[in-house]
Amino acid sequence: MNLHQLRVFYEVASARSFTAAAAKLHLTQPAASWQVKRLEEVCGVRLLDRAGKRVSLTEEGKVLVDFAGRLLRLARETDEALADLRGLPMGTLRIDATYIVGDYYLPGLLEALHRQHPGLAFQIGIGNSSQVIENTLAQQNDIGICAHDPVHPKLEARRILTDLLVAVVGPTHPFARRRSMALRELAGQPLILREQGSSPRRTIDDILKRHGIAPRVVVESASTPIIKRFAANGVGIAILSQQVVAKELQDGLLRLLPFKDAEVEYHFYLIRHRDRWASRAVQAFVEMAQAFQQEARLPRSLRSRRPPTGLTPAST
Q1: Residues whose CB is less than 8 angstroms from the CB of residue 262 and which lie 6 or more positions away in sequence, other chains included
Q2: pTM for this model (two decimals)
Q3: Which CATH architecture has domain 89-161+268-296?
Protein backbone atom coordinates (compact mmCIF):
# COMPACT_ATOMS: atom_id res chain seq x y z
CA MET A 1 0.00 0.00 0.00
CA ASN A 2 1.31 3.45 -0.89
CA LEU A 3 0.05 7.02 -0.92
CA HIS A 4 -0.43 7.06 -4.68
CA GLN A 5 -2.75 4.06 -4.52
CA LEU A 6 -4.66 5.62 -1.65
CA ARG A 7 -4.95 8.92 -3.53
CA VAL A 8 -6.35 7.21 -6.63
CA PHE A 9 -8.78 5.18 -4.53
CA TYR A 10 -9.88 8.28 -2.59
CA GLU A 11 -10.55 10.28 -5.76
CA VAL A 12 -12.45 7.40 -7.38
CA ALA A 13 -14.54 7.00 -4.23
CA SER A 14 -15.21 10.75 -4.04
CA ALA A 15 -16.19 11.07 -7.70
CA ARG A 16 -17.91 7.66 -7.88
CA SER A 17 -16.22 7.39 -11.26
CA PHE A 18 -12.90 6.06 -12.57
CA THR A 19 -13.12 8.40 -15.56
CA ALA A 20 -13.54 11.56 -13.48
CA ALA A 21 -10.87 10.54 -10.98
CA ALA A 22 -8.39 9.66 -13.73
CA ALA A 23 -8.95 13.03 -15.41
CA LYS A 24 -8.41 14.88 -12.13
CA LEU A 25 -5.18 12.97 -11.44
CA HIS A 26 -3.96 13.19 -15.06
CA LEU A 27 -4.00 9.42 -15.45
CA THR A 28 -5.51 7.14 -18.03
CA GLN A 29 -8.58 5.24 -16.88
CA PRO A 30 -6.82 1.84 -17.13
CA ALA A 31 -3.98 3.19 -14.97
CA ALA A 32 -6.44 4.36 -12.31
CA SER A 33 -8.24 1.01 -12.39
CA TRP A 34 -4.94 -0.85 -12.04
CA GLN A 35 -3.91 1.22 -9.00
CA VAL A 36 -7.20 0.48 -7.22
CA LYS A 37 -6.95 -3.21 -8.13
CA ARG A 38 -3.44 -3.37 -6.66
CA LEU A 39 -4.71 -1.69 -3.47
CA GLU A 40 -7.52 -4.24 -3.19
CA GLU A 41 -4.98 -7.05 -3.59
CA VAL A 42 -2.78 -5.58 -0.85
CA CYS A 43 -5.76 -5.13 1.49
CA GLY A 44 -7.20 -8.53 0.65
CA VAL A 45 -10.75 -7.16 0.32
CA ARG A 46 -12.95 -5.65 -2.36
CA LEU A 47 -13.15 -1.88 -1.89
CA LEU A 48 -15.41 -0.85 -4.76
CA ASP A 49 -18.44 -2.32 -6.50
CA ARG A 50 -18.40 -1.61 -10.23
CA ALA A 51 -21.68 -1.16 -12.11
CA GLY A 52 -20.95 0.04 -15.61
CA LYS A 53 -19.33 3.46 -15.44
CA ARG A 54 -20.47 4.06 -11.87
CA VAL A 55 -18.83 2.72 -8.74
CA SER A 56 -19.88 2.52 -5.11
CA LEU A 57 -18.05 1.77 -1.90
CA THR A 58 -18.25 -1.60 -0.21
CA GLU A 59 -18.43 -1.66 3.58
CA GLU A 60 -14.67 -2.23 3.65
CA GLY A 61 -14.21 0.64 1.22
CA LYS A 62 -16.21 2.98 3.46
CA VAL A 63 -13.82 2.25 6.32
CA LEU A 64 -10.69 2.74 4.22
CA VAL A 65 -11.83 5.92 2.47
CA ASP A 66 -12.08 7.72 5.81
CA PHE A 67 -8.54 6.72 6.79
CA ALA A 68 -7.29 7.49 3.28
CA GLY A 69 -8.68 11.01 3.50
CA ARG A 70 -6.96 11.59 6.82
CA LEU A 71 -3.64 10.18 5.60
CA LEU A 72 -3.72 12.32 2.46
CA ARG A 73 -4.46 15.43 4.50
CA LEU A 74 -1.54 14.63 6.80
CA ALA A 75 0.74 14.08 3.80
CA ARG A 76 -0.26 17.44 2.35
CA GLU A 77 0.23 19.19 5.68
CA THR A 78 3.67 17.57 5.93
CA ASP A 79 4.59 18.98 2.52
CA GLU A 80 3.33 22.39 3.62
CA ALA A 81 5.31 22.25 6.86
CA LEU A 82 8.50 21.40 4.95
CA ALA A 83 7.79 24.25 2.53
CA ASP A 84 7.35 26.54 5.53
CA LEU A 85 10.81 25.58 6.73
CA ARG A 86 12.11 26.86 3.41
CA GLY A 87 10.19 30.08 4.04
CA LEU A 88 8.02 29.95 0.91
CA PRO A 89 4.19 29.94 0.90
CA MET A 90 3.41 27.28 -1.69
CA GLY A 91 1.12 24.37 -2.44
CA THR A 92 -2.65 24.28 -2.90
CA LEU A 93 -4.83 26.41 -0.64
CA ARG A 94 -8.33 24.96 -0.30
CA ILE A 95 -10.95 27.63 0.36
CA ASP A 96 -14.72 27.40 0.83
CA ALA A 97 -16.68 30.66 0.69
CA THR A 98 -20.23 31.96 0.49
CA TYR A 99 -21.67 33.14 -2.82
CA ILE A 100 -21.18 36.86 -2.16
CA VAL A 101 -17.59 36.42 -1.02
CA GLY A 102 -16.81 34.01 -3.85
CA ASP A 103 -18.30 36.19 -6.57
CA TYR A 104 -17.38 39.70 -5.43
CA TYR A 105 -14.54 39.56 -2.91
CA LEU A 106 -12.39 36.45 -3.33
CA PRO A 107 -11.23 36.83 -6.97
CA GLY A 108 -9.41 40.12 -6.42
CA LEU A 109 -7.91 38.91 -3.15
CA LEU A 110 -6.58 35.70 -4.70
CA GLU A 111 -5.22 37.49 -7.75
CA ALA A 112 -3.21 39.79 -5.48
CA LEU A 113 -2.09 36.86 -3.33
CA HIS A 114 -0.96 34.90 -6.39
CA ARG A 115 1.04 37.84 -7.69
CA GLN A 116 2.81 38.03 -4.34
CA HIS A 117 3.26 34.26 -4.01
CA PRO A 118 3.23 32.62 -7.48
CA GLY A 119 3.98 29.22 -5.95
CA LEU A 120 0.44 29.07 -4.56
CA ALA A 121 -2.47 27.34 -6.25
CA PHE A 122 -6.11 27.61 -5.18
CA GLN A 123 -9.01 25.19 -4.99
CA ILE A 124 -12.25 27.10 -4.38
CA GLY A 125 -15.64 25.81 -3.30
CA ILE A 126 -18.76 28.00 -3.23
CA GLY A 127 -21.84 27.37 -1.09
CA ASN A 128 -23.97 28.80 1.67
CA SER A 129 -22.66 29.42 5.18
CA SER A 130 -23.91 26.07 6.48
CA GLN A 131 -22.02 24.19 3.77
CA VAL A 132 -18.85 26.20 4.42
CA ILE A 133 -19.01 25.43 8.14
CA GLU A 134 -19.73 21.74 7.50
CA ASN A 135 -16.74 21.40 5.16
CA THR A 136 -14.49 23.21 7.63
CA LEU A 137 -15.55 20.93 10.48
CA ALA A 138 -14.83 17.92 8.24
CA GLN A 139 -11.36 19.37 7.52
CA GLN A 140 -12.08 19.41 3.81
CA ASN A 141 -10.58 22.88 3.42
CA ASP A 142 -7.82 25.05 4.83
CA ILE A 143 -10.00 28.13 5.18
CA GLY A 144 -13.72 28.85 5.19
CA ILE A 145 -15.42 32.22 4.85
CA CYS A 146 -19.02 32.40 6.06
CA ALA A 147 -21.55 35.08 6.91
CA HIS A 148 -21.82 34.45 10.64
CA ASP A 149 -19.66 33.32 13.53
CA PRO A 150 -20.28 29.57 13.93
CA VAL A 151 -19.26 29.61 17.65
CA HIS A 152 -18.03 26.01 17.62
CA PRO A 153 -15.35 24.59 19.95
CA LYS A 154 -13.49 22.95 17.05
CA LEU A 155 -13.37 26.13 14.97
CA GLU A 156 -11.51 29.40 15.33
CA ALA A 157 -13.13 32.42 13.73
CA ARG A 158 -12.13 36.01 13.08
CA ARG A 159 -14.14 38.79 11.51
CA ILE A 160 -12.52 39.85 8.23
CA LEU A 161 -15.19 41.87 6.46
CA THR A 162 -18.16 44.04 7.38
CA ASP A 163 -20.73 44.45 4.64
CA LEU A 164 -23.81 46.63 4.36
CA LEU A 165 -27.29 45.66 3.29
CA VAL A 166 -28.72 48.51 1.25
CA ALA A 167 -32.12 49.28 -0.27
CA VAL A 168 -32.16 49.81 -4.03
CA VAL A 169 -34.90 50.52 -6.59
CA GLY A 170 -35.13 50.83 -10.34
CA PRO A 171 -35.17 54.22 -12.12
CA THR A 172 -38.95 54.00 -12.66
CA HIS A 173 -39.82 53.22 -9.04
CA PRO A 174 -41.80 55.95 -7.18
CA PHE A 175 -38.94 56.24 -4.66
CA ALA A 176 -36.22 56.54 -7.31
CA ARG A 177 -35.82 60.32 -6.94
CA ARG A 178 -35.65 60.25 -3.17
CA ARG A 179 -32.34 60.79 -1.40
CA SER A 180 -33.14 58.58 1.60
CA MET A 181 -35.93 56.76 3.42
CA ALA A 182 -36.83 55.76 6.96
CA LEU A 183 -36.81 52.07 7.78
CA ARG A 184 -40.48 52.23 8.81
CA GLU A 185 -41.36 53.23 5.24
CA LEU A 186 -40.67 49.66 4.16
CA ALA A 187 -43.98 48.68 5.79
CA GLY A 188 -46.47 47.80 3.08
CA GLN A 189 -43.93 48.20 0.28
CA PRO A 190 -43.33 45.27 -2.09
CA LEU A 191 -39.94 43.84 -1.14
CA ILE A 192 -37.51 41.72 -3.13
CA LEU A 193 -35.30 39.70 -0.78
CA ARG A 194 -32.88 36.81 -0.57
CA GLU A 195 -34.28 33.40 0.29
CA GLN A 196 -35.32 32.36 3.80
CA GLY A 197 -32.39 31.00 5.80
CA SER A 198 -29.71 33.03 4.05
CA SER A 199 -27.58 35.30 6.24
CA PRO A 200 -28.68 38.53 4.48
CA ARG A 201 -32.33 37.51 4.88
CA ARG A 202 -31.90 36.65 8.56
CA THR A 203 -30.25 40.01 9.12
CA ILE A 204 -32.97 42.09 7.44
CA ASP A 205 -35.76 40.01 9.03
CA ASP A 206 -34.22 40.67 12.44
CA ILE A 207 -34.03 44.42 11.82
CA LEU A 208 -37.61 44.60 10.54
CA LYS A 209 -38.85 42.60 13.52
CA ARG A 210 -37.10 44.98 15.93
CA HIS A 211 -38.89 47.89 14.29
CA GLY A 212 -42.26 46.11 14.30
CA ILE A 213 -42.42 45.89 10.50
CA ALA A 214 -44.09 42.92 8.83
CA PRO A 215 -42.38 42.55 5.44
CA ARG A 216 -44.50 42.31 2.30
CA VAL A 217 -42.26 40.05 0.22
CA VAL A 218 -43.28 39.79 -3.44
CA VAL A 219 -40.13 38.06 -4.70
CA GLU A 220 -37.58 35.98 -2.85
CA SER A 221 -34.72 34.14 -4.49
CA ALA A 222 -31.27 32.69 -3.91
CA SER A 223 -30.27 34.26 -7.23
CA THR A 224 -28.81 37.74 -6.86
CA PRO A 225 -29.10 38.51 -10.61
CA ILE A 226 -32.84 37.71 -10.48
CA ILE A 227 -33.33 40.03 -7.50
CA LYS A 228 -31.43 42.84 -9.21
CA ARG A 229 -33.43 42.42 -12.42
CA PHE A 230 -36.79 42.59 -10.63
CA ALA A 231 -35.64 45.70 -8.77
CA ALA A 232 -34.31 47.37 -11.93
CA ASN A 233 -37.69 46.75 -13.59
CA GLY A 234 -39.53 48.58 -10.81
CA VAL A 235 -41.20 45.57 -9.18
CA GLY A 236 -40.27 46.63 -5.66
CA ILE A 237 -37.53 47.54 -3.22
CA ALA A 238 -34.61 45.12 -3.09
CA ILE A 239 -32.34 44.82 -0.08
CA LEU A 240 -28.96 43.41 -1.00
CA SER A 241 -25.29 43.55 -0.10
CA GLN A 242 -23.71 46.81 -1.21
CA GLN A 243 -21.00 44.76 -2.90
CA VAL A 244 -23.37 43.08 -5.35
CA VAL A 245 -25.11 46.28 -6.51
CA ALA A 246 -22.09 48.59 -6.80
CA LYS A 247 -21.83 48.25 -10.58
CA GLU A 248 -25.56 48.71 -11.17
CA LEU A 249 -25.52 51.84 -9.01
CA GLN A 250 -22.60 53.26 -10.96
CA ASP A 251 -24.29 52.40 -14.28
CA GLY A 252 -27.60 53.98 -13.23
CA LEU A 253 -29.56 50.74 -13.46
CA LEU A 254 -30.42 50.94 -9.76
CA ARG A 255 -30.84 53.84 -7.32
CA LEU A 256 -29.58 53.77 -3.75
CA LEU A 257 -31.98 54.56 -0.89
CA PRO A 258 -29.92 55.03 2.29
CA PHE A 259 -31.85 54.44 5.51
CA LYS A 260 -32.11 57.59 7.66
CA ASP A 261 -32.36 55.71 10.92
CA ALA A 262 -30.34 52.51 10.50
CA GLU A 263 -27.16 51.14 9.02
CA VAL A 264 -27.76 47.46 8.41
CA GLU A 265 -24.44 45.67 8.75
CA TYR A 266 -23.55 42.04 8.69
CA HIS A 267 -20.19 40.37 8.98
CA PHE A 268 -18.11 37.73 7.25
CA TYR A 269 -15.84 35.46 9.26
CA LEU A 270 -12.72 33.55 8.30
CA ILE A 271 -12.93 30.16 9.98
CA ARG A 272 -10.40 27.36 10.42
CA HIS A 273 -10.40 23.97 12.12
CA ARG A 274 -8.28 24.18 15.26
CA ASP A 275 -6.54 20.87 14.48
CA ARG A 276 -5.26 21.95 11.06
CA TRP A 277 -1.74 23.16 10.45
CA ALA A 278 -1.60 26.92 9.98
CA SER A 279 0.82 26.96 7.05
CA ARG A 280 2.57 30.02 5.66
CA ALA A 281 0.07 29.87 2.80
CA VAL A 282 -2.80 30.19 5.28
CA GLN A 283 -1.01 33.00 7.10
CA ALA A 284 -0.38 34.81 3.80
CA PHE A 285 -4.09 34.52 2.94
CA VAL A 286 -5.14 35.91 6.32
CA GLU A 287 -2.77 38.87 5.98
CA MET A 288 -4.01 39.61 2.46
CA ALA A 289 -7.66 39.31 3.57
CA GLN A 290 -7.08 41.85 6.31
CA ALA A 291 -5.40 44.21 3.83
CA PHE A 292 -8.33 43.82 1.44
CA GLN A 293 -10.98 44.60 4.05
CA GLN A 294 -10.95 48.33 3.33
CA GLU A 295 -10.89 47.77 -0.44
CA ALA A 296 -14.10 45.77 -0.22
CA ARG A 297 -16.13 48.57 1.35
CA LEU A 298 -18.55 50.84 -0.45
CA PRO A 299 -17.02 53.31 -2.94
CA ARG A 300 -16.40 56.79 -1.52
CA SER A 301 -19.06 58.38 -3.74
CA LEU A 302 -21.68 56.11 -2.20
CA ARG A 303 -20.30 56.15 1.35
CA SER A 304 -20.87 59.87 1.53
CA ARG A 305 -24.61 59.27 1.18
CA ARG A 306 -24.81 56.90 4.12
CA PRO A 307 -26.14 58.15 7.45
CA PRO A 308 -23.35 58.83 9.98
CA THR A 309 -24.85 56.73 12.75
CA GLY A 310 -27.30 53.89 13.11
CA LEU A 311 -27.82 50.49 14.59
CA THR A 312 -25.87 47.34 13.93
CA PRO A 313 -27.86 44.09 14.06
CA ALA A 314 -26.80 41.23 16.25
CA SER A 315 -24.40 38.80 14.61
CA THR A 316 -26.19 36.12 12.63
Answers
A1: 183, 207, 211, 307, 310, 311
A2: 0.63
A3: 3-Layer(aba) Sandwich (3.40)
